[in-house]
Amino acid sequence: MIVDPVTSSALAAGLVGEPALAHELVHICRRESHCRWVGAHAQDAWAGALMQRKALQVGWLDRTCRHHRGAPERYSTRGAHGLSAAYSLRFLGGCMPPEVLDIPLVSALAAARRAKVQCRAQGACTPASRHRLWVGARRYDRRTRVTSRRPSAAR
User: Fold this and answer.
1) Backbone torsions φ then ψ of 45, nearest 5 degrees
2) How close are the terminal C-alpha atoms of the chain, in Å?
3) Which of 15, 17, 95, 128 gets the most CB atoms within 10 Å of its CB?
4) Inter-CA distances, 48 with 42, 87, 115, 135, Å
5) Torsion, CA 147, CA 133, CA 81, CA 33, rounded to 10
6) Cα Rg for the chain, rounded, in angstroms?
């Protein structure tokens, strides 16, 4: 089934049994791609080799899978939900090429499954706590500290 990224977000939330995730998935989609159909995010291609290498090291990609080999830039950020292919294919299971994340419903499904795992494994059960992980906890915390230290305009 091929549907637009916004509809895909709502469908994926329902498919994983978490309809409340729909709003968060649409928000991610708007932030990452303006909810447009996209493939590889060209500005992130440089990170593909590092992402692929790390994912192979921890077993998120399978060295024996023919789809998990090839041009490293394929494993960087992809699809409407801006997922790292190297880190996100595991949420779909099996031996799949990174290009499947270019399909909005597949991208939304991977993002929804990721959110469920983040809640179960890391206690990140709110949109804010998952956003912190998405951005990177250290970077998010650093930004939060800098923002909270700025003097108020009212002073």
Assistant:
1) -55, -35
2) 56
3) 15
4) 10, 10, 22, 17
5) 20
6) 16
Closest CA to 130 of 117, 118, 140: 118
pTM: 0.85
Using CB atoms within 10 Å of the CB of residue 46, give its burial: 0 to 12 exposed, 13 to 18 middle, 19+ buried.
exposed
Beta-bridge partner residues of 84: 77
Contact at 8 Å (CB) between 13 and 22? yes
What is the token pair recorded at 137?
A: 């906890």
Question: Cβ atoms within 10 A of the Cβ of 97, count?
Answer: 16
Residue 114 · residue 122 · CB < 8 Å: no
Tokens representing 51 are: 């992402």
Tens-place pLDDT, residues 76-98: 999 999 999 999 999 998 899 99
Question: How many angstroms separate the CA atoms of 70 and 134, rounded?
Answer: 26
